[in-house]
Specification:
The protein is mainly beta. Helices cover 13% and strands 44% of the residues. The longest helix has 7 residues.
Length: 144
Amino acid sequence: MSGAANNMASWLSHITNANGIKSIYGESLPSLSNCVIHEVTFHRDGPRAMLRIDLPDYPKTAPEKWKASECNTVQINLMAVAISVSELRGWNTDGKVNIEVGQADIEKTILAHSNDGLILKIQAKSLFITEITAYRNSLKKKSI
């Protein structure tokens, strides 16, 4: 894997259960640049937050079920558990969002920002991918 690919995919090292994404994408792991956030839900239990995100990259070798359905977009649910800090400013409904996942001291961090003013910041004890799905996005050309 190239250095650029390693940097883009380094977010997976902060995810507790990254094996599902790794098995679907193989060596061409997805970046979190130019994502679409569909939903952010905060739950008092935990406390926790769930982000529903369209990834910008479609796997080169998608599962047969996705191929048969002519899917072109992968969507994940990213959950932050035991939140200690959260901040949400602005929102966008159709723009691209850059997401950074990292670590600050002993906590995991999510920072999402867009050119039109969206800022989402979350610090939590752990990050999990709770769902990986694919769908046919009519606003996007099918990846080959």
